[in-house]
Amino acid sequence: MFAADEASRALGIELLEHGEGTAVLRMTVTPSMVNGHSIAHGGYLFLFADTAFACACNSHGPVTVAAGADIDFVAPAREGDVLVATARERTRFGRSGIYDVSVLRGDEVVAEFRGRSRSIRSTKTKESP
């Protein structure tokens, strides 16, 4: 799934580790990710955490998408900061799940994200010959 994620890969996001219900990703804040306050735009931090969430919740096999998510911005990130997002499954029940993602710069928390997932039937269709 991550290999086909053009949006995340175009931002230089790297998948460092993955396992059942977990994922660890890295991203460097680039000049194009910085807003008018000279800090990382919250949308990029959300996208980064959401990508970690997607990798973790899709680790079980069925196609899984976000049903909802929330993020708390704890500290600003700046151009050149190397961020690491660690996603962990909290629980799965039926076709749903809850995942927490911590975004850190070194040992400092930058953001905390909680995602709610839902497994769906694949939306891909076979191409006609």
Description of the molecule:
With 129 residues, the chain is α+β, with helices and mostly antiparallel strands. Helices cover 16% and strands 44% of the residues. It contains two helices and six strands. The chain has helices at 6-10, 42-57; strands at residues 14-19, 22-28, 64-73, 82-93, 96-105, 108-119. A six-stranded antiparallel β-sheet has the order 1-2-4-5-6-3, with helices on one face. The model is unreliable at 125-129 (pLDDT under 50).
Spell out the blueprint of helices and strands.
Blueprint: H1 6-10, E1 14-19, E2 22-28, H2 42-57, E3 64-73, E4 82-93, E5 96-105, E6 108-119
Antiparallel strand pairs: 1-2, 2-4, 3-6, 4-5, 5-6
Q: Which labels suit this protein?
A:
single chain; 129 residues; alpha+beta; 6 strands; disordered C terminus
Rg on CA atoms, Å: 15 Å
Low-confidence stretches: 125-129
Largest sheet: 6 strands, antiparallel
How many angstroms separate the termini? 25 Å
In terms of DSSP E residues, the strand content is 35-45%
The helix-and-strand class reads alpha+beta
| Apparent shape | globular
As a percent range, the share of helical residues equals 10-25%
Question: Averaged pLDDT, please?
Answer: 92
Kindly state the number of beta strands: 6
Order the strands across the largest sheet as they lie in space.
1-2-4-5-6-3
Order of helices and strands: HEEHEEEE
Helices, by number, come to: 2
